[in-house]
Amino acid sequence: MRCGSVLAAVGALGFLSVLWLHPGRRSGPRRPGGDPPHPTSPGPPALRWESVCEPLLRGEGGGAFRWDRAGPGAPARPVLPAADYCRRLASDSFSSRFPADREETDFPLAFVVTAHKDFETLEWLFRAIYRPHNLYCFHVDPKSPAVFKERVDTLERCYPNVFLVSKSEPVIYAGFSRLQADINCMRDLLAADDRWRYVINLCGQDYPLKTNLEIVRHLKAFKGKNLTPGILPPGFAKQRTAFVFKSVLSRSHSRVVKTNKLKARPPHGLTIYFGSAYYALTRGFVSFLFEDRRALDLLEWSKDTYSPDEHYWVTLNRIPGVPGSMPSATWDGNLRAIKWQGLKAGEKCYGHYVRAICIYGTGDLNWLDAEDSLFANKFELHRYPPTLECLEYRIHKQALNLSTHSDTN
């Protein structure tokens, strides 16, 4: 790498960190709930980050940047009045700068968004994925801090196509409650609107690597099939459904505990698969979940298993004849880019690991830029702000390129 490129990248990070540390030096409107998202100048504001982000996306320096805004002495973030917040959220959203075209509005999507902390990161995700013709169900863990729940409630009230789930679950990591949270949102989505084609689940620490138009085109290429990446369970995953697990809910440490009791065999002679908790499901498949005895019985059987969201969707989607099923699929779909600790020799996380998943730092931007997945997981805006700043710049650039290409055809 050329010395000049490294110096440029380091200088860019310094510039970006100054903007976060001293938000008053920015020009233009402030971001809803606190700092503005980017300096303003003519044209789409996020595109003004070109000189900062292009070197980082090429992998030229910046890997060590970290600023823990949540640490001691971090400045408090003011909460705006609801009306002001909604106006500023709308002006900062991707849809205000790149209105949806006919191809997108003819293929509306629904989203299940589960979250329990870090409102600023969740808001950054929402700004990128919001479209007026899509539908959004938020599931907020009732154990979340009150201020977090209040801010999500304020966000939800800004839009008629965004709502809170009618029944929230106290989520335990790897417990049945995580699966039930999605099921609850799906029931509400079915009742809310009959136009959406697919439902996609997200967590509050995801971020898109594709525009909404690119996501639509990706899903259309599967011609009405569900995307539930997975395979027959490897050795380490077999005990998850072979033994009974108990969920223990407590204020200090909620957890799932394995017992020595063997599970009964799966209902209806179903073969249990193992896969991703992430999915893109057709509306027909979601209706099947609430109407078909096999789906209902498997849901009941899964209540005392470990991490049932990693077997439920993929198992049902392998049944021939089920709406949108893919009986012979494996890891198809490109739904999520995740850096797993130790999965690939020599692969480095430039942020830090939580439960063996990389929380992306700025040094991971080059890896993320090369990924072909719809979304990436996980991010923390308060620790690595330039990572999300530059991914926002990247997705705006992709949208501009798509728009330019469309105009020339």
TrEMBL record:
Pathway(s) where this gene product acts: Protein modification; protein glycosylation
GO cellular component: Golgi membrane
Biased composition, class Pro residues, residue ranges: 34-45
Signal peptide positions on this chain: 1-26
Gene Ontology process terms (BP): transforming growth factor beta receptor signaling pathway
Record flagged with keyword Heme: no
GO molecular function: acetylglucosaminyltransferase activity
Transmembrane segments: none
Location in or out of the cell: Golgi apparatus membrane
Plastid found in the keyword field: no
Keywords: Glycoprotein, Glycosyltransferase, Membrane, Signal, Signal-anchor, Transferase, Transmembrane, Transmembrane helix
Location (main, coarse): Golgi
One Pfam family of this chain: Branch
Record's bilayer topology term: Single-pass type II membrane protein
Residue segments, region Disordered: 26-46
PANTHER family on file: GLYCOSYLTRANSFERASE 14 FAMILY MEMBER (PTHR19297), N-ACETYLLACTOSAMINIDE BETA-1,6-N-ACETYLGLUCOSAMINYL-TRANSFERASE (PTHR19297:SF183)
Entry protein name: Glucosaminyl (N-acetyl) transferase 2 (I blood group)
Species this protein is from: Callorhinchus milii
Gene transcribed to yield this protein: LOC103184570
